[in-house]
Amino acid sequence: xxxxxxxxxxxVVGGVIEENGRYLIAQRKRGDAYELRWExxxxxxxxxxxxxxxxxxxxxEELDLDVTVQEFLGAQEDSDSEGAVKILYYRVRVDSGxxxxxxxxxxxxxxxxxxxxxxxxxxxxxxxxxxxxxxxx
Length: 137
Known about the structure:
This protein is α+β, with helices and mostly antiparallel strands. The protein has helices at about 50-65, 120-135, and strands spanning about 10-20, 20-30, 40, 40-45, 65-80, 85-95, 105-110. Strand 5 and strand 6 form a beta hairpin.
């Protein structure tokens, strides 16, 4: 069964960017859905895009980053006002860019244990638990 099969209203990708034992998280802007909540940066997969293409596009649009999508780390199910959501998480390497805040209030580099101190989106919080349990980082 493929990653995109199933009854999903929305497929979302999240980039897990880790450098020197710290992970990049981003805070959503005021006025956005889930304002001021923290997330792994990424976004919705558009019709005709692969998850990897969507993640490269989203990180370019949101943070002005040029990235290489590396390995698939796992999936998480969630729901929101649009219905059933499937979130696909990928390890990402930053090749170049400026971390410009085009779609977020701020970004923060945090350790795996510090992630629990932030008001993460529900799907991301569940993924962090799996990340910690599996010691994927």
